[in-house]
Amino acid sequence: MLKIKVPATSANLGAGFDTLGVALNLYNEFIVEESDTVQIETYPKIPEFENPDKNLFVKVLKKTCEYIGNDFHGVKLTQKINVPVSRGLGSSATAIVGAIVAAFTANKKVLTDEEFFNIAYQFEPHPDNLLPALKGGFITACVEDKKTYYSKIPFPEELKFVVVIPDFELSTEKARKVLPEKVSLEDAVFNVQRVSLLISSLVNKDFDLLKVAMNDRLHEPYRKKLIPNFDKVVENALNSGAVGVSLSGAGSCMIALAKENFEDIGKSMVEAFNEVDIKAEYKILEIDKEGVQVEF
Ligand SMILES: Nc1ncnc2c1ncn2[C@@H]1O[C@H](COP(=O)(O)OP(=O)(O)O)[C@@H](O)[C@H]1O
Ligand SMILES: N[C@@H](CCOP(=O)(O)O)C(=O)O
């Protein structure tokens, strides 16, 4: 029996589209036991996830066993689901990372980065959730000539994350479909300027720069149309003391970075959604520095 614990992740942080991601102290758990058939139990119950043909963790487990060269006979999978699904908190990455690590661990094989990406990219083509879920921390990454390059960035202890979770899903697939094929040089430069300012302001703890540094022109202008009252959520969070606000991943969550006033910020973000008849809750989270953990 293996228990795999995988952290939620928040990708992009505004200007860092498809490159920045941070692991958060909110976890999905996957308990994996030997079985000759596929049995899945989910807590709370999500019927879609209990269908062996549709469960992402099982799909990735099968693919990984095939990659390793071992026949997949079955699995008894018990899932404790704490990461909201299709909210921009990397729930899909938790299943992908968890399954790959479970398969390699069960087969007593050492998982290299290259092998991880060879499998993971078949299910999720961008590293900004996968890497922080695997390694923990705050990471910047890119892919060049089919090789993934990444670097962990020190994240200031003073900052916490206030995540507002509206009660509607937004699949990453849908949120990527609304993005343009091309962007202007002006918008590209806008993001290059801000993502470098974002990293520098975090490393140097120049938190007053984050409000500007977390602005984005590559994805948020298009995706905000799918998030009712987006601008008011941002405005309320900043007025309540947040130092920066952005969409979390591809949404529907939004994430505020803050040194203080966490409860007020969370309540103000919820209020903005309530104004347009959308129920929401908030969580005050911190960085996870470990990434995926395995208990025997
Ligand atoms: N705990 C889980 N177990 C199995 N599959 C999961 C789990 N969480 C998410 N998934 C899969 O990931 C999909 C959501 O992925 P996506 O739209 O990228 O949203 P997110 O922003 O949460 O990653 C779900 O529809 C499901 O197929
Ligand atoms: N860079 C990706 C990140 C998707 O994150 P998720 O948590 O929403 O899956 C994107 O913006 O599409």
TrEMBL record:
Keyword hit for Amino-acid biosynthesis: yes
Pfam families named in the record: GHMP_kinases_C, GHMP_kinases_N
Enzyme class: transferase
Occurrences of domain GHMP kinase C-terminal (ranges): 199-265
CC annotations in GO: cytoplasm
Keywords: Amino-acid biosynthesis, ATP-binding, Cytoplasm, Kinase, Nucleotide-binding, Threonine biosynthesis, Transferase
Pathway: Amino-acid biosynthesis; L-threonine biosynthesis; L-threonine from L-aspartate: step 4/5
Catalytic activity: L-homoserine + ATP = O-phospho-L-homoserine + ADP + H(+)
Residues that coordinate or bind ATP: 84-94
GO molecular function: ATP binding; homoserine kinase activity
The keyword Transferase is assigned to this record: yes
A biological process term (GO) from this entry: threonine biosynthetic process
The enzyme's E.C. designation: 2.7.1.39
Cited InterPro entries: GHMP_kinase_C_dom, GHMP_kinase_C_sf, GHMP_kinase_N_dom, GHMP_knse_ATP-bd_CS, Homoserine_kinase, Ribosomal_Su5_D2-typ_SF, Ribsml_uS5_D2-typ_fold_subgr
Domain GHMP kinase N-terminal stretches: 55-137
SUPFAM superfamilies for the chain: GHMP Kinase, C-terminal domain (SSF55060), Ribosomal protein S5 domain 2-like (SSF54211)
Chief location: cytoplasm
Subcellular location: Cytoplasm
NCBIfam families found in the cross-reference section: PRK01212.1-4, thrB
Function: Catalyzes the ATP-dependent phosphorylation of L-homoserine to L-homoserine phosphate.
Family: Belongs to the GHMP kinase family. Homoserine kinase subfamily.
Name the record gives this protein: Homoserine kinase
Name of the coding gene: thrB
